Amino acid sequence: MPSPMRTAAVTEEQQQIRREIRRTLRELLAKRAGPAEVRAAVETPEGYDSALWTTLAGRLGLPGLTLPEAYGGAGCGPAELAVACEETGRALVPSPLLSTGVLAAPLIAALGTERQRAALLPRIADSTLTCALALPGDSLALALGITGDNTAAPWSGGGRSGGIQATRPDGEHWSLYGEAGHVLDGHSAGLLLVAAHTGGFPRSRTLLFLVRAGAEGLTRRREPTLDLTRSQAGVRLRDVEAELLGEEPVDTLGALAATGRAAALALAAEAVGAARGALDRTVEHVTTREQFGRPLGSFQALKHRLADLLVRIESARSLTVRAADEADPDGVAALLALAQALDAQRAAAAETVQLHGGIGITWEHDAHLYFKRAAADELLFGPAVRLRARAAERGGLFDDPATGERPSGGPAAARPSGREVG
C-alpha cells in the first residue's frame, strides 16, 4: 500500500540556502549562458562549456549538491537540487548535471562499496569526473521506473541475446557485450555506469557495472539529437572489461527506481525553469514589438494568453516545490509534478514560437531552443499521460489485476490528508 505523504518542515536556514543557490546561479548564468553562449557550448566536443561546469562546481558544488559531505558533497536535499535544476533549465544550460549529478552519483552512493564511493564521489563533487548511465533498450524512463514498472519489462535484455550481456569468462572478471543508445552525455563522460543482464534464464538479474573511458572494446559516438542542449550518445561494448558496482546480492532495479523518483523531481524543476524562460522572452518580445502603432503586449487577447500561460507554469512550479518538501516514497507527487511541468513547458514553447510571429518559426531563432527541449523531454521522459497513469498505478487507483480488487487504502493513500496532490 502506498505510504501517505507528509510535508517536512522547512527551516529558515534551508530557505536561505535555496535563495542563495537561486541568486548565485541566476547571476552567473546571465553572464555566462546567454543564447549565444549556449549555441557555442553545444558545438564543443563535450557538448557543454567545461569551464562553466568547473565554475559551477567551485562556487556552488553543483555536481555534488546532494552527495554527503564526507565525500566532498554539499549534503543538500532534493529541494535544493530542484532549485538548481530550475535555474539551469531557465537558461537551457547544456551541462552534465542530469547525467552525473542526478542519475549516476546517487547510484554510486547507494550501491557502491566504500572503496568505490571514496574513489569516485569526491571526483564527481569537484567536477573532475563526469559520468553517464548507459541503459540498453529505447526507454530510459521505463528503466528508471518513471513510466512503468522496471521489474516487469525486459528492458535490459534476456537469454542469450538482446540488451547488454555480462559474463565472467574466467570465473572472476566481468566482461560486457552489447549496445546502448540515447545515453545522456555518454560520448564525453569519464565513467560509464552500464546496466547489463546476467545469470541466464534460471538466475536472471540486472546489475550495474563501471566502465572507464578508453576501455578496450568500448566505442562511443555522439548522436544527432532534436534538442542540441542535451547531448546523447550511442555506446557499443565488445567484450569490455568492467567492474561490478557494489557487491552481490544487490537490488539494482530498486536503486534505479529510487533514482528515477528523484530524477522525476529534478526534471520537473528543469522543465518549469525552461517554461518560465520561454515566457520571459516572449513577454520581452511583445512589449517591444509594435503593430498598428502600439506594442503587441497591449492587446487584451495576448494579455489573456500570457496570463493563462503564467498560471500553468506557476501551478507546475508549486506542485514541484511541494513534492520536493514531502516524504514521497512511492514517487506519486514527483510523477504528477513532472507531468504538469511537461505540459506547461510544451504550452510555453508553442506560445513562444507563435507569438514571435514570422521570425519565431525559423530554426535559427532562440524560440526553437525551447521548442526542441519541450519536444525532446516528452520523447525521453513522457508523455505526460503516461506519467499520470503511472502515478495512478503507484497511488493505488487501479484495481489489482491478480485479485480484481483495489489496493487497501486506495487513492486516499496517495495524497496528504485534507488536500490533493495535484
From TrEMBL:
Residues 396-422 are annotated as: Disordered. The keyword Oxidoreductase applies. This is Acyl-CoA dehydrogenase family protein. It is an enzyme of class 1 (oxidoreductase). GO terms for molecular function: oxidoreductase activity. Residues 11-126 form the Acyl-CoA dehydrogenase/oxidase N-terminal domain. Its cofactor is FAD. Residues 265-394 form the Acyl-CoA dehydrogenase/oxidase C-terminal domain. InterPro entries: Acyl-CoA_Oxase/DH_mid-dom_sf, AcylCo_DH-like_C, AcylCo_DH/oxidase_C, AcylCoA_DH/ox_N, AcylCoA_DH/ox_N_sf, AcylCoA_DH/oxidase_NM_dom_sf. It holds the Pfam family Acyl-CoA_dh_1. It comes from Streptomyces roseicoloratus. Keywords: FAD, Flavoprotein, Oxidoreductase. The keyword Flavoprotein applies. Its EC number is 1.-.-.-. Belongs to the acyl-CoA dehydrogenase family.
